[in-house]
Amino acid sequence: MSITLKERNQTLKEFFDRKTVGYDDVHNAFLDSKKALTAALPDGVSSVLDLGAGTGMELISLFERFPDIAVTAADISEEMLSVLKKRPFADHVSFVIGDFFETDFGGNYDAMISTSALHHFSPEEKLVLYRKVYDALKPGGLFVSSDKMAPTPTQQEENFRMLAEDPHRFPHMDTPLTVAAECTVLEAVGFHIIEVTATSNQDYYLIKAQV
Ligand SMILES: C[S@@+](CC[C@H](N)C(=O)[O-])C[C@H]1O[C@@H](n2cnc3c(N)ncnc32)[C@H](O)[C@@H]1O
Question: Closest residue (by CA) to atom 9 of ligand 1?
Answer without folding.
Answer: 57
